[in-house]
Amino acid sequence: GDAVPSGVDPMIAVSAHDVLERALDNLYGSDIAQDVDLVTTKNGREVRRHQLTLLRKKIGGRSHTLFDYRLNNEFYGLRSLRIERSEGVYDRFLYLPEFKRVRRFSGSQRADLVLGTNLHFEDLEVRTPASFAIVGRSVAEYEGVRMHRLEVEPRHELDYDWADVLIDPETYAIRRIRYLREGDPEPLRILTAPADEMVPFTDRILPSHWIIEEGGTDVRTDVYFRRIRTDPDVKDGLFSARTLEATPDLPAFEAR
Questions:
Q1: Among 11, 73, 87, 133, which is most buried by a count of CB atoms within 10 Å?
Q2: What is the maximum span of the chain, computed from C-alpha positions, in angstroms?
Q3: What is the pLDDT of residues 138-155, one digit of tens each?
Q4: What is the DSSP string of the chain?
Q5: What's the predicted TM-score (pTM) here?
């Protein structure tokens, strides 16, 4: 590439848009199948646990995400299908096993939480640079490494006004996100991806563990991603309300 002018920080020489694009493509740029374990604690005591299978695929340029709750508790058999209709707007289908029926919801995602945790569906669904306006960029040291730091605002109404994002300059892995409200120095929540729990693939590096801490509280959700498979062979027909009602076992995937 072109030489960086003398005196210009090589990290700043990379445009903020390119940094954000590469970071989001690293995290969301492939179809995926994975098991997800969620453990929410308060004051160190477990208060909620979920196990679910997550399938995500782009079909016709739109993101389709299927969640299947697997833990044998009151949510067992619950399924959620979310289909992107336009940027930030989703059609949502929820299968309620108790009633053996599917309910449909439409609209922007706002602040949809995975049941009883502080993990947002937004964190698991595809986000692109079009999802955000970049309002600031700098370099910040984090765990002894100089990181890209971007300040971004969501283009659709969510529960936060802006986010402070740290991105590894070598892998473009998102290492930490602080979600904030305007005028409030205390983050709503902080999402951290430990460096030593990243999983390398041929064309990307993905987290196997997220820590989500709720600002000003002792509430924390640990999100463990297991049996991760990128670009699995998933049939398009799986992502339909009809499939939710049929409730067959989801296909097994060879995964790591």
A1: 11
A2: 67
A3: 999 999 999 999 999 999
A4: -PPPPTTS-HHHHS-HHHHHHHHHHHHHSS-EEEEEEEEEEETTEEEEEEEEEEEEEEETTEEEEEEEE-SSSTTTT-EEEEEEEETTEEEEEEEETTTTEEEEEEEE-TTPBSTTSS-BHHHHS---GGGEEEEEEEEEEETTEEEEEEEEEESS--S-SEEEEEE-TTT--EEEEEEE-TT--S-SEEEE--GGGEEE-SS-EEESEEEEEETTSSEEEEEEEEEEEES----GGGSSHHHHHH-PPPPP----
A5: 0.89
